[in-house]
Design goal:
The chain is an all-alpha fold. It is built from 1 helix and no strands. The protein is rod-shaped and about 85 Å long. The model has no long low-confidence stretch (mean pLDDT about 85).
Length: about 70
């Protein structure tokens, strides 16, 4: 190997490492953004309202023969 090809290989390896570091940083930022957006969506959901004026026995059993 001559000196020029060794330098080219070294530069290529360094650029690849930098690209991977940047890609990982961008991925982590995107995951943080998705986490905050999902949290906002979940916080915005109103708790379910209980059914009114229904007998207490409704909703306790599941009909598995139907």
């Amino acid at each position: 190997m001559d000196v020029l090809s060794i330098a080219k290989l070294s530069t290529t390896i360094a650029e690849t490492g930098n690209k991977q570091e940047v890609a990982i940083a961008v991925l982590k930022k995107q995951q943080d953004m998705q986490k905050s957006m999902a949290t906002q969506l979940l916080d915005g959901i109103a708790p379910p309202q209980p059914a009114q004026n229904l007998p207490a026995h409704l909703g306790n059993n599941v009909n598995t023969t139907a």
